[in-house]
Design a protein that fits this description.
heterodimer, A: alpha/beta, Glutathione S-transferase Yfyf (Class Pi), Chain A, domain 2, 2 domains, four-stranded parallel beta sheet, 15 helices, 8 strands, 10% strand, globular, B: alpha+beta, Ubiquitin-like (UB roll), two-stranded antiparallel ribbon, 38% helix
Chain lengths: 296, 334
């Protein structure tokens, strides 16, 4: 297999509140021999909130990010579902609307850039599953996760709207997604089948509609627990933040004890590939997760 | 599950949600064995349950052409128009294990039939019609350019089936929320050049609790719509219109959206601590103190992150480009 090379759009959280996401992603890439160039020029994707305020500005900023991946001639990879969504939405809007593309490029020209539409945008999960390949990953596993029942939590913005994502997520069906389940199996863990795996975590209304947010996260966590999950794994740091950082508040709203480690997808892979405790960064979790390293 | 020899049909067991609000204390599931043909629709399966197995099985059906919206149900949680959805496709998707369910189990009246009263109440609340003073004897037609018409063309395809409404998780938790179908209608008439109630609709749909700010951004509505209207795209447009038409008032949600510009201008990245302080205001911050302390303990944030004179946020390379682009591209203000 020829070496895979990607331009990594880290997003904001991996540079701030979830440093463990970045370190574990780089550890996975290192173990698998994937070459990563971090797009240090990239800005925030707008997280679906800037889009509510000024959709055009959000397109301009996302197009600028993509320009830097195009300059490198590489696929832009994301490690956050919401970064994936917003980057892909801009790409789709510009690639299908010549007038909008011209208006965006008029702005980008002022800073010496041009959006061409030559780079694909893909979440790291699908790079691993579809491009690196599950069999290849399986052959590199040094610490099988056979001790764990793992609940895959897909996160909305990687699977919906499916029409937008189908080119980059191998046609994953949003009503019955399988990629994360297959990845868990490849690492010899036991995927937990539960109804909430493709539901919303409520992160985006954490501030303005707190109760809705807590109940949605709570429904998912409780559903995972009731199906014997020992941890949750998600490809989205925003789902992680909601379910990890706010777990105590969520438990109170649900009237249930919830003590569930919520791992980032690359942390789980890094664990199975024998990454160090430091690379995993489980100490950065609010809901205790450090025991996972010892139990593996 | 076995395929028959010529594989034109497939022998399967279809499960169906059964409930009669007048006689049943709890809903239950019943199984029906049948051979399903390649071209059969979910509606055909429901007809066969009723005609060949149990005449009491109840569901709504009318046009059989995907235009009346009556036969909208869910199959394994997936919203479908029964008269449009091929059954074999669903059997493939769910490994031959499918359960027919009403759009909303908690609103079930009889089997697939639900009380859609909440849907109609919300839909009519946004004035889903053109509000205008029409001359009793107009001398010419009301002209509308193709571009003006195209603004609302796809929203006009809504058949009020409720697929998006009953797939919306925000609505499941928050009964005051208008839901995606009502928002699509609000958008459709607000951008119609003949209409004069746009501001009223924008005010209605910007209210906290019921309005667009309570949308959780899950895209379930986009996935559910059988007419490919993409309701959340219209919700985003309603958000933008609030700012364009100066309807938006400064509150936690509008500051949260606008606060992204403030952060990106300064750092390129979002300042995660600042966005909370800016959205909530310093007084509102007390709600987040407990979480902040936990995050500080875990090393996720630092004790001085929220202090205005401390800047711990990483910066994008070539930040001046980002600042210039914001300056020349931003169109909205709060």
């Amino acid at each position: 297999m020829s070496q895979l090379k990607y331009a990594l759009f880290t997003g904001c959280t991996a540079k701030q509140s979830t440093p463990e996401l970045l370190s574990s992603t780089l550890a996975v890439a290192d173990k698998l021999g994937i070459e990563i160039t971090i797009l240090e020029e990239a800005s925030c994707c707008g997280a679906s909130h800037l889009q509510d305020f000024d959709e055009f500005l959000a397109h301009v900023l996302n197009a600028r990010n993509i320009c830097y991946a195009e300059k490198l001639g590489l696929t832009m990879i994301t490690i956050c579902n919401t970064c994936q969504l917003n980057s892909a939405m801009t790409k789709h809007a510009l690639d299908t609307n010549a007038d909008l593309k011209a208006r965006v490029n008029e702005k980008l020209k002022e800073v010496g850039l041009e959006y061409k539409g030559t780079s694909e945008i893909k979440h790291f999960l699908y790079c691993l599953v579809d491009e690196y390949g599950l069999d290849n990953i399986k052959s590199k596993v040094t610490t099988p996760l056979s001790n764990f029942n793992i609940a895959p939590f897909y996160g909305c913005h990687n699977i919906r709207p499916s029409e937008l994502h189908h080119g980059s997520n191998n046609g994953e069906n949003s009503y019955n997604p399988t990629s994360l389940d297959s990845l868990i199996e490849a690492l010899e863990g036991h995927p937990v089948d539960y109804e909430s795996k493709n539901k919303c975590c409520g992160f985006h209304v954490e501030l303005q509609a707190n109760h809705t947010s807590e109940v949605l996260a709570g429904n998912a966590l409780v559903d995972a627990i009731d199906n014997n999950a020992e941890m949750v794994v998600t490809p989205c740091p925003l789902c992680h933040l909601k379910m990890d950082t706010y777990q105590d508040d969520v438990a109170k709203v649900m009237g249930r004890d919830i003590n569930l480690p919520v791992l980032h997808m690359p942390q789980m892979v890094a664990l199975a590939l024998g990454a160090t405790e430091k690379e995993l960064g489980l100490n950065f979790h609010v809901s205790k997760a450090t025991q996972v390293f010892a139990e593996a | 599950m076995q395929k028959t020899e010529n594989s034109k049909t497939r022998k399967v067991t279809i499960k169906a949600f059964r409930f009669n609000i007048e006689t049943d204390y709890l809903p239950y599931t019943k199984e029906y064995e049948m051979e399903v043909g390649q071209d059969e629709l979910v509606l055909d399966l429901m007809n066969r349950i009723k005609w060949e197995h149990d005449g009491s099985f109840s569901y709504r059906r009318s046009c059989r052409h995907g235009i009346c919206g009556a036969c909208a149900i869910k199959v394994n949680g997936k919203a479908v128009l029964a008269c449009k959805q091929n059954a074999i496709e669903l059997l493939d998707l769910f490994n031959n294990d499918i359960t027919l369910e009403p759009q909303s189990k908690k609103r079930a009246v009889k089997d697939m039939i639900i009380d859609k009263g909440d849907f109609w109440e919300k839909h009519s609340a946004v004035k889903p019609y053109v509000v205008t003073d029409v001359e009793p004897h107009p001398e010419h037609e009301t002209k509308q350019s193709i571009a003006e018409f195209n603004n609302f063309l796809d929203s006009d395809l809504c058949i009020q089936c409720g697929a998006c409404h009953y797939s919306c998780p925000a609505l499941e938790v928050n009964e005051a929320f208008f839901g995606p179908a009502a928002f699509v209608a609000a958008y459709r008439f607000t951008v119609d050049t003949r209409d004069s109630a746009g501001i009223e609709r924008l005010e209605l749909t910007s209210e906290m609790g019921q309005g667009v700010w309570d949308c959780v951004k899950c895209f379930e509505c986009a996935e559910a719509c059988p007419k490919e209207i993409n309701p959340i795209e219209k919700i985003t447009k309603l958000h933008n219109l609030q700012f364009e038409k100066k309807v938006a008032r400064s509150n936690i949600a509008t500051r949260h959206a606008e606060g992204f510009v403030r952060s990106i201008k300064k750092h390129g990245f979002l300042d995660e601590a600042d966005i909370v302080v800016y959205s909530e205001g310093y007084l509102g911050m007390y709600k987040h103190m407990k979480t902040a302390i936990k995050m500080i303990k875990a090393g996720k944030i630092h004790w001085d992150d929220a202090l205005p004179w401390v800047d711990n946020v990483p910066k994008s390379k070539n930040l001046s480009e980002i600042q210039k682009l914001i300056e020349i591209s931003m169109t909205n203000k709060l």
